[in-house]
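Comment thread on ticket #2218

A.B. wrote:
> Attaching the input chain for the structure job we discussed in standup.
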Amino acid sequence: MAEKLIIVMANTDPRNGEELGAPIFQATVAAAMEYEVDVICTATAGRLMKKGVAESLVVKEGSPKTVYDFIKDAHDAGAKFYCCSPNLDLFDMTEDDLIPECSGIVGGAHLIEEVMEGDCKVMTY
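C.D. wrote:
> Ran it. Output below, let me know if you need it in another format.
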C-alpha cells in the first residue's frame, strides 16, 4: 500500500464552492490516517493558494466555515498544499501572495516524477 497520496485539484473551480469540499476533506481524512498527503492546486484551483480567495468562499451557502477554514484543518492534520508554478503568472501572484498553509511552488516535472517514480496514489479533482 502506498504511504503517500497526491490530490491534484485541476478541474476544481473556486467559483463553485460545492466543488471544493470533497478534495480538501479527503486530504484531511488521509492526513488524519497518517498518510503523507500533498495537495497540488493547479489551473483554476491555483487561485485557492492566493491570500484572500479561500477566505471569501464557502462550500455550502450559509455555512459559517470558509474554504480557508477547511484548508487550515487539512494543513493542521498534516496535509501539505502546493501551488503549481504557472499559476503565479496566470493569476498575477508572487510567493508573497500565497497563504501561509502553502508549502511551496511545484512545476509539472515534480508531479510527473512523483507519479512515475514515487510510491504514491493520485486522486484528481
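A.B. wrote:
> Thanks. Noting for the ticket: The radius of gyration is 14 Å.
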